[in-house]
Amino acid sequence: MSPLTVGPSAAPAAVLCGLAGWVPSGVVTNEHLARRLDTDDAWIRTRTGIRRRHVVDPGQATSDLAVEAGRRALASVATDRVDAVIVATTTPDHTCPATAPAVASRLGLARVAAFDVGAVCTGFVYGLASAAGLIAAGVAERVLLIGADTYSTIVDPLDRANAIIFGDGAGAVVLRAGHPDEPGAVGHFDLGSDGAHEDLIVVAAGGSRQRSRPGEPSRQDRHFAMRGKEVYRHAVTRMAESARATLSSAGWKTGDIDHFVPHQANLRILHSVADDLGLPRERCVTHVESVGNTGAASIPLALADAAAGQLVRPGDRLLLTAFGGGLTWGSCLLTWPALPAPAHPYDLCDQGERTTS
Ligand code: UT7
Fold first, then answer.
1. Ligand 1 site: residues with CB under 6 angstroms?
2. pLDDT of 122-148, one tens digit each?
3. Residues 62, 151: Cα–Cα separation, whole Å
4. Residue 349: its pLDDT value, please?
5. Is 266 a known active-site residue?
6. How confident is the model over 298-325, as a mean pLDDT?
7. CATH no. for residue 230?
């Protein structure tokens, strides 16, 4: 029997076997922002929990971050063989083509399937489900999934509501075909959307809607816009609902969860969701303080951060839950496998911090 055969009807599962995170070295602290915006460190920390974020240099793009994270994730499993590369991002290098083929090519992965997933901050969880589908269908035995975003390229630096929240980064995982019952197998997905609220998070210009109109887009339309308060309310409700649906489909109780790894939108949102679920806040993995909201990168970066610090250990049960523009949301479960500990994603920066104003 082939090791990938898991029974007469069971399809192979996607099993986490490699992990890495990477952030660019430019750092923007709350104090930097307060120098150019009508804001201050106390407001930002109280309302969001964020102290600093990392940003790309001029000319650096999402694929540059994705390649760094992807290369480290592949090195952690000592492989250069995958059958598919998925990049989850809201900030692709170009509107056309997708970013994943260029990332695959730069990683030396010739001829593999490569595509982007666009589900805004839920992109990584949608990407996990896509990778699991490719593996279950027998299309791929090994998938490299990267969540990467450079929000600093789409947020208006003068927009104090959004400039304080977002940061740039990338996180990558390698998934291999395996048994649904083994540690690292991702499953019990809950994915959802509500396009009736697409206007709550939007970049109006650049797509076919705006391009089919005559005239140049305004500065406002070229930048990321978010109705923060309404998004906040949806985020708390949808994340809690999705987490509950996932636990229920697996027959798990809240108390079975050792670590809740939410999309790092805002510390208050994460704590509200944990409270709603009845999860002690200490079980909520957070790194929003150090990197802000890194979009599709936030969950894999949080995982890399937690694994590097040995906060998550083999056998621990994790619930991943995300929420983002679309609106979109999603959750899944996994039991942490024995993995080579990734390097701390911020090591490079902490050794020689270079700041940006
Ligand atoms: O990742 C995808 C999902 N994204 C999210 O989940 C983000 C969700 N939203 C949020 O995190 C929060 O809504 C924000 C952090 C964006 C804003 O926090 P808030 O507590 O909802 O503040 P607010 O928008 O209600 O604004 C409160 C006040 C306003 O002043 P007035 O009208 O009460 O006088 C704002 O003008 O705070 C003001 N304000 C600021 N003050 C200082 C807004 N931004 C700032 C700022 N510094 N940076």
1. 39, 43, 47-48, 121, 160-161, 164-165, 228-229, 231-232, 235, 265-266, 269, 293, 323-324
2. 999 999 999 999 999 999 999 999 999
3. 9
4. 53
5. no
6. 96
7. 3.40.47.10
Catalytic entry in 30, 162, 266, 293:
293
Whether 284 is a known active-site residue: answer: no
Counting the structural domains of the chain, the total is 1
* CB of 318 closer than 8 Å to CB of 312: yes
Stretch 313-326: mean pLDDT, rounded?
97
Contacts with 3 (C-beta within 8 Å, 6 or more apart), sequence order: none
- In this structure, the residue with its CA closest to atom 30 of ligand 1 is 161
- Is-catalytic flag, 332? no
Q: What residues have CB less than 8 Å from 95, skipping those under 6 apart? A: 206, 207
User: Do the strands 168-178 and 142-150 form a parallel or antiparallel pair, or are they unpaired?
Assistant: antiparallel
Question: Rounded to an integer, what distance in angstroms lies between the CA atom of residue 185 and that of residue 18?
Answer: 12
Return the minimum-mean-pLDDT range out of 40-49, 160-169, 209-218, 327-336: 209-218
The pairing of strands 328-335 and 317-324 is antiparallel
Using the predicted structure, report yes or no on whether residue 75 has a pLDDT greater than 60.
Answer: yes
Most informative mutation of 31, 230, 266 for ligand 1 (most atoms within 8 A of CB): 266
- Residue with the smallest CA separation from ligand 1 atom 47 is 39
Q: What's the pLDDT at 344?
A: 84
For residue 161, the one-letter residue type is: A
More confident residue, 246 or 211: 246
Mutation test residue for ligand 1: of 91, 232, 264, 267, the one with most atoms within 8 Å of CB: 232
Return all residues near 79 (Cβ < 8 A) that are at least 6 apart: 18, 142, 174
- Match 């990938």 to its residue by tokens: 4
Q: Which of 121, 284, 332, 349 is catalytic?
A: 121
Q: Which domain holds residue 334?
A: 1-357
Helix (H) or strand (E) holding 174: strand 168-178
Angle between helices 267-277 and 41-48 (to 10 degrees): 20
pTM exceeds 0.70 for this model: yes
Measured distance CA(46)–CA(268) in Å, rounded: 9
Provide the 3-class DSSP secondary structure of residue 90: coil
